[in-house]
Amino acid sequence: MDEAALLERLRARDERAFAELVGAWSPSMLRVARMYVATQAVAEEVVQEAWLGVLQGIDRFEGRSSLKTWVFRILVNRAMTRGAREGRSVPFAALAADEAARDEPAVDPSRFTREGAWVSAPRRWEDEPEAAARSAETLAVVRGAVAALPPMQRLVVAMRDLEGFDALQTRNALEISETNQRVLLHRGRAKVRAALERHYGEADETVHP
Q1: Which of 1, 63, 83, 114 could join 88 in a cystine, given CB atoms 3.0 to 4.6 angstroms apart?
Q2: CATH number among 1.10.10.10, 2.60.40.10, 3.30.70.980, 3.40.50.720, domain 92-207
Q3: Full-prediction pTM beyond 0.90?
Q4: Could you give the C-alpha distances from 207 to 29, 56, 72, 142, 179, in angstroms and in order?
């Protein structure tokens, strides 16, 4: 649906438009909220609070960002508030800056020779049809690897690679800098790729002992 038409319907309190939006975006919102609060039940409450905030604030939405970015910013703020009640809250910008500033190699140094060349180059799964056939299994490995990342790497990778946000939407929703978003995404993706390489290596050893 065209965003301008959707906004008009939402501002007119069109219940069907609102229900369609809730149905389309709530699963992603729940996954993002779950990264910042302690339980699934609390995450569900956060999503409900966020949608109430959307309904109450839609007339004040100025369109300076996309509607989706605005909705997820409301979600993030609600998640931070609930996290603060649980003693878990640190501003996303501060967390992002802290993680990005750490002296952390994006790729395991053991993957390189002393001269800086690859010991074993990354595999290209897109060239391996048998790997593509295990897409559901691969997704499970990816989600497990993402869940194991540090908090901000986990959030940025999940929003970019699992929920389909672009760089601008992610930065705006989390209110973090372009540089920190790029560093966190690069490091997180490298760890996920390493997890996939380990998984496929173990699978190959099982099939070809």
Answers
A1: 83
A2: 1.10.10.10
A3: no
A4: 39, 56, 43, 21, 42
